[in-house]
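Page 47, continued from p. 46.
Same chain as before, 452 aa.
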Amino acid sequence: MSEQNLVTVTIDGRTARVPPGTLLVEAAKQVGIDIPVFCYHPKLAPVGVCRMCLVEIEKVPKPQPACTTRVSDGMVVHTQTERVADLRRGVLEFLLLNHPLDCPVCDKGGECDLQDLTFAYGPATSRLQDPKVRKDKAVELGNFIILDNERCILCRRCVRFDDEVAAEGNLIIENRGHLNVITTMDGHAYNSYFSGNTIELCPVGALTSEPYRFKARPWDLSKADAICTGCSVGCNVRLEYRHGQLLRITARENEAIDNGWLCDRGRFNYKYLQNRERITRPLVKKDGRFVPVTWAEALRVVADRFKAVAAAKGGRGFGVIGGGKLANEEAYLLAKFARLVLQTNNVDHRVDGRIAASVGAYAGRQTDLSAADVILIVDADPAETAPVMDLRIRYKVERKLAKVAAIGSVLPHYRSRHARIALKPAETAGVLRAVAAAVGGGKPGPCAADPE
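Result:
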């Protein structure tokens, strides 16, 4: 956006130039001011239910929530007045009235927004003299999530994610007033491909990870950036481990790839790394059975076999196949080893011989889905094969921003209306010919999906 189309807003004496309609909480970030929030999240629609972000705006009689207020030209905002500080203390006091003193045993300790903001803005004591409201604790919300209703501050982040992003509508708020609790429709288990995102979204310890539960504190963990190899999307992840043992996987936002979300397969499918049946040392077959050996002996056996094959057949006696879970650097080194050491060009990453229908498809980007007016899904369920990419499609379907059609023997399932044509496996190629003819306005050409 050009400089002429920007509006000027002054926040605590700092001037920001932002596009019209920018939320005040985001405008404040641009000038280095963090307004405390609980319910607000940049990936979710603003709702303004926690009131933690109240600020004073000149010429406006009452404090306004920064998470739902959009800036206007000439706006002057104050976030550090005594009135604002008193409002924040009041909000925190209400949130803490029935909040349990679980910090020493809560998995969220050390990365809890309520804990941090209470230290920064909250009251030092509680005036509550009556017994706290008791609710169900350690509820198995789903296969991977433990819900503690007493810790919940009803920010609705989890419910909004499930409705707005995952577009599934599994989670609801039940009852009224101080008896409000998070639950599922009809009390069934929270069954979703993306349920783990609610754990990261939760600003308190109401939703915690069952596999990570009571394993470590955040400050005990070492972290390493990585790429998820569960599917072809390549989500950015952060591996968090202690004493050489992987304890949890969290999202590492990359707008162009994963938009900050992870599927449950990428988030929780790591226990196999600690499986006792994994091969952790070299094995060599002797007398019909595998026996453990040293690395030196194993490498000597492999080298001898390579030399024998090279002497008998030369480079044509070797074929090298790199797995899909190799990093780019590892794949490069494997190919270099094959060509320079084994003297072979028989290098591939496939075992079935199929070739992509169009080389140009590799140039596509996931962000192209965000700009698409029509999305055609052929013989696939993206939720199974590329779950996080499927969230982009769900976003378009839910908001009617694109026409989505699915054809084939395997079809996706979306909550909102979309075109579906169920086919037998052998019929897909013929239908694609017809689609190509209709789009091109002429006679269909050869179809790459046709059998030889």
